[in-house]
Amino acid sequence: MIETGRTGLFAVLHAASSLEARVESRLAEVGLSLPKLAALHHLSQAGDSLPLGQLAERLACVKSNVTQLVDRLESDGLVTRAADPSDRRSRLAVLTESGKSAYAKGTQIRQQSEREIFGALSSDEASSLHTLLAKLDRS
Predict the structure, then answer these.
(1) Structure confidence by residue, pLDDT tens digits, 41-80
(2) pTM for the complete prediction?
(3) Which residues, 6+ apart, have CB-to-CB distance to 130 below 8 Å?
(4) Type and span of the H or E element at 39
(5) β partners of residue 91
(6) Distance CA 85, CA 83 (A)
(7) Could you read off the pLDDT of 96-137 as tens digits, one per residue?
(8) Taking the CB of residue 6, how many other CB atoms lie within 10 A of it?
(9) Do 42 and 93 form a contact (C-beta atoms < 8 A)?
(10) Number of neighbours of residue 125 by Cβ within 10 angstroms
(11) Which residues of 69-107 are buried (b: 16+ CB within 10 A; e: fewer)?
């Protein structure tokens, strides 16, 4: 059923939820989710490994959530855990070759999704949207 009259906050939340579901569905086809892709992104950007605490900071979540996320990534064969040579109390999440491949596939899906989503907008509309979202994010 199509809902009409959605304004303000509900319109933004509905659009975000709809777009998130679309991207999540495509990522699921290759065994990924947005949180998994975000973790793989941060590991890749950091040179393929990070202490779990730093990964939590970069993902802006608590350490227990990162532990569960890394558990799932590890069971998927996308990361391994290793001792941190600079801090024996810490563990590293290390990107595997399968993780690098999954990250590349996930990045392609994300980029294609962005092209499709923003392709529905003119360049002026896309620019305005980015400006408006940044403004809302600062408020």
Answers:
(1) 999 999 999 999 999 999 999 999 999 999 999 999 999 9
(2) 0.88
(3) none
(4) helix 34-45
(5) 83
(6) 6
(7) 999 999 999 999 999 999 999 999 999 999 999 999 989 988
(8) 13
(9) no
(10) 11
(11) bbeebbeeebbebeebeeeeeebbbebbeebeebbebbe
